[in-house]
Structures are given as C-alpha cells and as structure tokens.
C-alpha cells in the first residue's frame, strides 16, 4: 500500500490472472468494483510464464487489505477461479520525469538518490547535468 500525493489517499494494488481472454478492463472493472473503490485496471499485453493473461487492479481507501485479499481470491468467472493476490514487487515511485528529445524517461526515487550520492550534494547542484548523466548511465 502506498499513498498518492496527488490524491492524499491510500492506493492498494493487486495482481490478478486466470480470466477469460475476451474480458477487457471494463468487464473486470464491474467485477472488482463490487469489492471496493477501483482506481484503475491494467491488463498486460504479454502473458505470464504459465501463458495466462495477467493484470493489476488498484483500489483506493482500503481499510483492511488482508480481508480484501481473501475476498478477491474467491472470484470465479464461469467455472474458472481467478488468481488474485498482493503483488510480490512494489512498483517503484517516480521521483521525476525527463523529456529528452521527445522521449520521456521515468526516474525512480532510488535512481535519483543514487545519482545525488555519486555527484555529492554541495548545494550548488546543476539538475540538468545530473539528469543527463543519469540518462546516460541508465540507457547507454
């Protein structure tokens, strides 16, 4: 669970898989909205290692994550039980976005902190130089 600075609300993400190929975000939104306030749904274009389509659903203002996890893990579509659980890996927080020649790069808080450690924060920082250096390291 993480807080959205923009919303000032708690956002909780869940991973899901094993749902019919013909289901889209709209179908899944209707299913998941029965269990709480859905903030967004993402369905990946590729499949997982078991060749299942997978995605992520984000809820806002979840009071009891464990209870919601148990509820969501009981969802069945037709005669197929969906797999729904808390993601193993947290999505990295974006510190800032750099627009370099028409291409946008998302720089995470960890990458940003690493960059400042390498440069040394003397109070006389040139942010453009640091951002370009980070892009060079990450995408060279």
Automatic annotation (TrEMBL):
Pfam families for the chain: RRM_1
Residues annotated as domain RRM: 12-89
InterPro entries from the UniProt entry: Nucleotide-bd_a/b_plait_sf, RBD_domain_sf, RRM_dom, SRSF
GO biological process: mRNA processing; RNA splicing
Keywords noted in UniProt: mRNA processing, mRNA splicing, RNA-binding, Spliceosome
CDD domains, sorted: RRM_SF (cd00590)
GO MF assignments: RNA binding
GO cellular component assignments: spliceosomal complex
Protein name (database record): RRM domain-containing protein
